[in-house]
Design goal:
Layout lengths: L12 H14 L1 E9 L5 E9 L8 E5 L4 E4 L1
Antiparallel strand pairs: 1-2, 2-3, 3-4
């Protein structure tokens, strides 16, 4: 998860684009999704994104165990 483009988390590119558009228009987005690992296994995560007006694209991924991973 760390260091990967956030679009690689979604099972479908359409869902990723929809969430990114929500961040651009609403300035934030939070939702749950089924993410995909490198080995193609899946896991549930909660993802949040917020537009800061800067070029730093930051977000957090929360897995089902309460762990939080920072994405920069």
């Amino acid at each position: 998860v760390l260091g990967k483009p956030v679009t690689e988390l979604w099972s479908t590119k359409e869902e990723a684009l929809e969430a990114m558009e929500a961040v651009r228009t609403n300035r934030s987005w939070m939702g749950e999704l089924v993410a995909r690992r490198k080995d193609d296994s899946v896991f549930d995560v909660q993802l949040s994104g917020k537009y800061s007006g800067k070029r730093s694209r930051k977000g957090y991924v929360h897995d089902g165990f309460g762990n939080r991973y920072y994405r920069a």
